[in-house]
Amino acid sequence: MELIKLIQSFSNPFLDIVFQLITMMGEDIFFMFITAVIYWCIDKELGYKLGFLTLTSATVNCGVKDLLKIPRPIGEPGIRSLRVQTAEGYSFPSGHTQNTTTLWFFFMLQFRRAWLYMIGILIIVLVGISRLYLGVHTPLDVAGGMIIGVVWVIVWSSVYEISRKQKNKSILIIAVALALIGLLEFKDANYYKVVGALTGLLIGYLIEPRFIKFEEKASFLQQIFKVSFGLAVAYALRLALKSALPEILISDFFRYLILLLWITIAAPLLFKTLKVNEK
Asked: Lower CB count within 10 Å: N or C terminus of the chain?
């Protein structure tokens, strides 16, 4: 708590805005954007790998939080908390920090560029500090998120590569099935959202390569169209489903399931139907 207070002693309106913007790099919208762009425009296989990695990591994060049930520092005397609407559930480990570590450590190992190591480490550290500055996590939460993120990248990357090389999708099906079983134990909205997204990704992974087979490569303007239109529909779907569905846990599951079905199946089918990739 004293370290949080020390960091917050430098707080001012400008830093409040800066650290809220930094912390957004650890939120689901940012990861959905990165994964969709890679999947639609760069490399489908890389998009699948990144999607499974980040979503399984988030599933583990939600599960650990619910098992340990460590309270957040929000409301502690002398602690000022900002952007609390994104600080749902329990405290350890920090989800924003773990998600950011998972993403950037994956990029570091995947591409092995010095500049990427520097940028990745900087962003991971800044997101971790932002969680302390905003008063929604403790240093232990942040450190735990970083460690679990690194370990999960190493573990899951190995699992995914085994599945890909052996052309054995049952490994991924079993992983998602275990996450689905967790719905019976973890009655947390974030867990339901993540598992819904993970289920949608698996369905896309099984269906798209067999029945759609869309091409990622296109001209620059065509790529701009795919990203802008695809994400605009995803955002509209997100808002519409939140308004239309009742506020119960299973609605969170189906909202994110539908969002990932749009990204992995419906949008690629639409791009192919419109012949977006043709000159």
From this structure: C
Rounded Cα distance between 190 and 185, Å, is 13
Written as one letter, the residue type at 33 is F
pLDDT tens for residues 117-136? 999 999 999 999 999 999 99
Closest CA to 187 of 94, 65, 71, 82: 65
Q: What is the C-alpha separation between 107 and 103, in angstroms, rounded?
A: 6
In whole angstroms, what is the distance from residue 91 CA to residue 69 CA? 7
- pTM here? 0.92
User: CA 161 to CA 173: how far, in whole Å?
Assistant: 14
Lowest mean per-residue pLDDT among 24-28, 120-124, 173-177, 201-205: 24-28
Contacts of 177 (CB under 8 A, 6+ apart): none
Res 279 pLDDT > 80:
no
What is the Cα–Cα distance from 70 to 55, expressed in whole angstroms?
22
